[in-house]
Amino acid sequence: MSPPFGDILPLRVLITGANGLLGQRLVEEFSRYGRYDVLATGRDERPRFGNLSAGYVRLDILRRADIEGLFADFTPHVVIHAAAMTNVDACERERALCWRTNVQATQYIIRACERYDSKLVFLSTDFVFDGQNGPYREDDLPNPVNYYGASKLTAENEVRASLLNWAIVRTALLYGTARNVNRPNFALWLLDRLRRGERVRVVVDQYRTPTYNVDLARGIEQLVRRNASGIYHLSGRELVSIYEFARQIAEVFELDPDQIQPCTSEELGQPARRPSRTGFIILKAETELGYRPRPLREALRELRQQIEVDIR
Ligand SMILES: NC(=O)c1ccc[n+]([C@@H]2O[C@H](COP(=O)([O-])OP(=O)(O)OC[C@H]3O[C@@H](n4cnc5c(N)ncnc54)[C@H](OP(=O)(O)O)[C@@H]3O)[C@@H](O)[C@H]2O)c1
Questions:
Q1: How many whole angstroms separate alpha carbon 42 and alpha carbon 59?
Q2: What confidence tens digit (pLDDT) does each residue in 276-292 have?
Q3: Of the residues 46, 64, 86, 158, which should be mutated to test ligand 1's pocket, given the most ligand atoms within 8 Å of the CB?
Q4: CA of 6 to the centre of ligand 1 (A)
Q5: In angstroms, what is the span from residue 258 Cα to ligand 1's centroid?
Q6: What's the N-to-C CA distance of the chain in angstroms?
Q7: 155-188 residue pLDDT tens
Q8: Does residue 42 have its Cβ closer than 6 Å to ligand 1?
Q9: Is the CB of 61 under 6 A from ligand 1?
Q10: Counting beta carbons within 10 angstroms of the beta carbon of residue 250, is it exposed (0 to 12), middle (13 to 18) or buried (19 or more)?
Q11: What pTM value is reported for the model?
């Protein structure tokens, strides 16, 4: 572990993918502390989050010259690279774009971090594993079963091979609220369908440790504060099937769990293969970072409150 950033104040933190499900919470979390000077970036003209003290600049990470220009201007101490092509089925179909976004753009960011001596925190996924032996520790052997997972693992390996002060944060099945995101996360998708009175099919044979985006953002702040390096698994603590997760969501939101019908991955037939049993052992993050994700039910109750605040 490198020494903490100590007396560098404020610490300049650059966030990519700041309009995404995690990115918006990262901006919120880091903006809470006077010790950080936050520059949020996304590919939209304007930020989707509102009313925060962070700066915002439009950045398409496929444009290397724009990355270089931004680094020259802002000279970040820390870069949190959350931008990615995250739609697993789209990655399977549009492989070239997936590779450019998840691997090549990460290489651009690594080179810029090397030039400006920035610490890099790279967001990765449980999908680097094949799901045969989950839940996984940080030093378990990756073996992705789909293109998205392969792209993220290749990017991880680029980060690890760099000369940087780096950290890789792997997370799993992220849920929570964020404004105007292009794609609803599983929890919001499910709530929408249940509220319309529709029946949904949810897989019983895929296990995950669902992660509340607020908790994950807090964990990443704890990592940056300690200047921790290496790989960390940051997810919820409870390993559940996605079907079980769905039923718990329905119960906490007082919707009808019987609208959720169990099915197998084979029956669902998603375009990209999914690892069956992933999920993380988070002991390293708990002991080294003080990471404390809420229990699943508690996080879901907070999500419900959050949604009620957002609707008002
Ligand atoms: N969601 C999960 O369950 C999950 C699980 C494990 C790991 N992760 C990892 O966690 C990180 C954050 O994921 P998330 O759930 O917050 O995903 P997200 O909501 O899809 O956010 C990713 C952001 O990256 C942006 N992006 C994509 N291509 C870009 C480009 N060329 N230039 C600039 N920005 C670009 C997207 O922009 P648009 O909004 O315009 O599309 C989006 O805002 C990712 O690295 C992902 O691989 C996510």
A1: 5
A2: 999 999 999 999 999 99
A3: 86
A4: 30
A5: 32
A6: 44
A7: 999 999 999 999 999 999 999 999 988 788 999 9
A8: yes
A9: yes
A10: buried
A11: 0.97
Three-class secondary structure assignment of the chain:
CCCCCCCCCCEEEEEECCCCHHHHHHHHHHHCCCCEEEEEEECCCCCCCCCCCCEEEECCCCCHHHHHHHHHHHCCCEEEECCCCCCHHHHHHCHHHHHHHHHHHHHHHHHHHHHHCCEEEEEEEHHHCCCCCCCECCCCCCCCCCHHHHHHHHHHHHHHHCCCCEEEEEECCEECCCCCCCCCCHHHHHHHHHHCCCCEEEECCCEECCEEHHHHHHHHHHHHHHCCCEEEECCCCCCEEHHHHHHHHHHHCCCCHHHEEEECHHHHCCCCCCCCECCECCHHHHHHHCCCCCCHHHHHHHHHHHHHHHHC
Domains of the chain in sequence order: 11-179+210-237+280-294 (3.40.50.720)
Q: What residue owns the CA closest to ligand 1's atom 10?
A: 123
- In tens, the pLDDT along 200-229 reads 999 999 999 999 999 999 999 999 999 999
| Single-letter amino acid, residue 222 | Q
Read off the tokens for 277. Answer: 């049993």
